[in-house]
Specification:
Length: 182
Amino acid sequence: MRFAFLPFLCAFIAAPAVQAQSAPKPNRATKAHIRAFERLDLDNDESLSPAELLKATASVKGSFTATNAVVHAWFDLDENGGIDLGEWLDGRTGNGNSEEPSLSGDAAVELDKNGNEKVSRTEFSRVINRYVPAKITRTWFAAQFPGGQVTGSTSVWNNIWDWNFTVVGWDTVAPVGPVAGD
């Protein structure tokens, strides 16, 4: 009876050690996304406000408040007014919102760098790449403008609330909106 505990002790010693599972280590791309989030989070509250997200486009000439509002709403899945790190990582890796943001109206005017009333893939990418990687930018552009560029009528362009789009080929421009004399 004195050695009744011996079989239990031997079984415990012979049992393989159970390792605690740790969270997977982030890869280089994830680390880069985290650093980008930290740079934009000016007040260190672990949430990006629309004003903080606007900093992403600070190095691009122009004002992108409408574009920023649309992109911020796309990232902010729980609609609490801030983008947390999880939402940021999901959006930046393509695992977040399944729908592309609607970058029309005021946002389209902001994206039209040269003022020719067309948003080209280059104009679109120069701003949108500040928010999301190039692969996602290409997907958004293809979804928004399946034929290539988007054009708007001059009279409609000046009255943005009446804005409408017509998708045209990469090298063609189609007249849109009211024609002079109508």
